[in-house]
Amino acid sequence: SAMFDSLSRSIEKAQRLIGKSGTLTAENMKEPLKEVRRALLEADVSLPVVRRFIKKVEERALGTKVLEGVTPDVQFIKTVSNELIDLMGGGTGAKDLEPGFPQIILMAGLQGVGKTTAAGKLALYLKKAKKSCLLVATDVYRPAAIDQLVKLGAAIDVPVFEMGTDVSPVEIAKKGVEEARRLGVDAVIIDTAGRLQVDEGMMAELRDVKSAVRPSDTLLVVDAMTGQEAANLVRSFNEAVDISGAILTKMDGDSRGGAALSVREVSGKPIKFVGVGEKMEALEPFYPERMASRILG
Ligand code: GDP
């Protein structure tokens, strides 16, 4: 996908502007930083996030002792790379799912973002890691959503627990976890109702399900195509129900990548996985350093 192409080109251009002689100064970074700033805004990263990012790059670049033999353009790119990694959550690997037995994973998200698909993908991902799973269907408002999960489960050979649409989501979730314990599975993934927009009813229901099953992870599924709006959604869900992380879907599409860059900074919570296609196999752990090197080309 061409997601970060424009950003990559701009960073390359900034590097060329700096050149290979002398040292980094506030003066010779001015235009290059403007270029990076423009590219981040174009990638749909929010203005405050971009401002903080540019300021940090400038401070670090000026404050770091340059190693002998390192040209200023390389020094600049190294600094941008470090700050990109930091922006996306830092660390040396992907953020794992929280431990538990069974691991209880609550999936939340607006309708159409790819939540049910992500539930299936996560089950397959865990299955490949030799963990047995149970999927639980609690979207009592849309029978089609329950059918969809049942079909996904059949396709990847993972059992699906459902009680139709006449029982409350809280009750289904509780019974689902009981069933998971009875079966002795390693993980239970609870799909919840997706709504067209955030409303208090949705949040209250999610809170109720959450306190009933005490999940090890509460993952908000957001659509990368929605850019900085995705990051804002992660923040509001986190404020309302305290999530453990996000799954960013449709990273294979032609989104501008702003969501991947902003979720952590805007919400304080990590992206744990990314969806990269419609197939059940198309789920990957999110590695900030891999994403940063993709951006830098
Ligand atoms: P839900 O309403 O949030 O449960 O959304 P669904 O799981 O039904 O997904 C909505 C649509 O998005 C479906 O057509 C999925 O195939 C598609 N989809 C989900 N994840 C991805 C992804 O990572 N990449 C692409 N290209 N499509 C996806």
UniProtKB/TrEMBL annotation:
Q: Which GO terms describe its molecular function?
A: 7S RNA binding; GTP binding; GTPase activity
> Mind listing the GO biological process terms from this record?
SRP-dependent cotranslational protein targeting to membrane
Signal sequence, renumbered to the chain: none
Instruction: Report the EC code(s) recorded for this entry.
Output: 3.6.5.4
Task: Identify which top EC class this enzyme belongs to.
Answer: hydrolase
What keywords are annotated for this sequence in UniProt?
Answer: GTP-binding, Hydrolase, Nucleotide-binding, Ribonucleoprotein, RNA-binding, Signal recognition particle
Sorted alphabetically, the Gene Ontology cellular component annotations on this record are: signal recognition particle, endoplasmic reticulum targeting
The chemistry this enzyme catalyses reads: GTP + H2O = GDP + phosphate + H(+)
Q: Tell me the superkingdom of the source.
A: Eukaryota
List each copy of the SRP54-type proteins GTP-binding domain by range: 270-283
Q: Which family does it belong to?
A: Belongs to the GTP-binding SRP family. SRP54 subfamily.
Q: What is this protein called?
A: signal-recognition-particle GTPase
